[in-house]
Amino acid sequence: MSAHTHAIPPAAFHAIEWHHQSLHLLDQRVLPHEHRMNEYTTAAEVADAIRDMVVRGAPAIGIAAAYGYALDALAGRDMQQAYHVLAQSRPTAVNLFWALERMAGLGTEDAHALVAEARKIHEEDILANQAMGNYGASLLHPDSLIYTHCNTGALATGGHGTALGVIRSGFADGKVKQVYAGETRPWLQGARLTAWELMQDNIPVSLVCDGAAAQLFRRESIDWVIVGADRITANGDVANKIGTYSLAVLAKHHGINVMVVAPTTTFDLSLRSGDDIPIEQRPKEEVTSLNGQPVAPHGCDAINPSFDVTPAGLIDVIATEKGLIMQPDESSVAMLFARG
Ligand code: MRU
What we know:
The chain is α/β, with parallel strands linked by helices. It has helices spanning 43-51, 58-74, 79-87, 94-104, 111-137, 163-172, 189-200, 213-219, 244-254, 285-288, 330-338, and strands at 2-6, 16-19, 22-26, 35-40, 144-148, 176-182, 205-208, 224-227, 231-233, 238-241, 257-261, 267-268, 289-290, 293-294, 307-310, 317-320, 323-326. Bound molecules: 5-S-methyl-1-O-phosphono-5-thio-D-ribulose.
């Protein structure tokens, strides 16, 4: 892996780039203050980048894994080993396993075919984001106040974003008055990434401590909580960044609508309910420290589940590239997939 750093560009960015037969990832660990592109040439390096959160967000993890798999084909390495090492990187986002299955399912070790497939996965994700952005935005009324959590934008996907894609499309249609971005402890995706993306697009955003959401919901007329997903089961339960479940409970209490935005590649129809989703446990140092500085007493224990599960009953709509699932449950989810 090699890296080069320069000042933050004012214009658009790409989180994932493929050129000169190597993968280039915008290092999300150092944003928003540093713009560093890292170069990767092996599947094992890409697996480390996914585990260490250089690249994160369910669709982006899937795209990076597809390119990582292609890298080992280019170098003539063992493809089963490439699959295995990438599959071990992070357990919750099903897009990772979906992408690896699609790459391995080609049944070839031809590097050019595999690079082309990875590029296709990348391009399809951008198109899916735009489609679900339009579907989701069609539900917003003018001057909407929206609360979002984690980062679901161009950094977390092939481009445009899932929940942030709906916000971007809604803003372009003149429907978004104000976005509230939850800071998303412990990793601060909301503070470091979402606020940065929205500010670059001149979309009004206020940062909110996670613990301030309840008071905000009580005092302001928030219209929507809009979030992404890492895995959605056959009954419409949603695994997403830790804190999503509490927001959905709070939204129900305050009569606020909840929209989940995700491509169909985030659905895992092999699992009946959210209870079956593997939840990643990350290092406790992410909780006991902030930016590498200890904030808790030396030796303090901590728990750090990276995701939680929101039951389908707390969700009003799931926006996908194939259309909207209103009041998600087993039959409404099955109906969307039956459309083909
Ligand atoms: O741990 P992360 O940053 O990979 O978690 C990301 C999220 O939980 C996102 O909300 C989810 O992947 C949907 S992003 C398009």
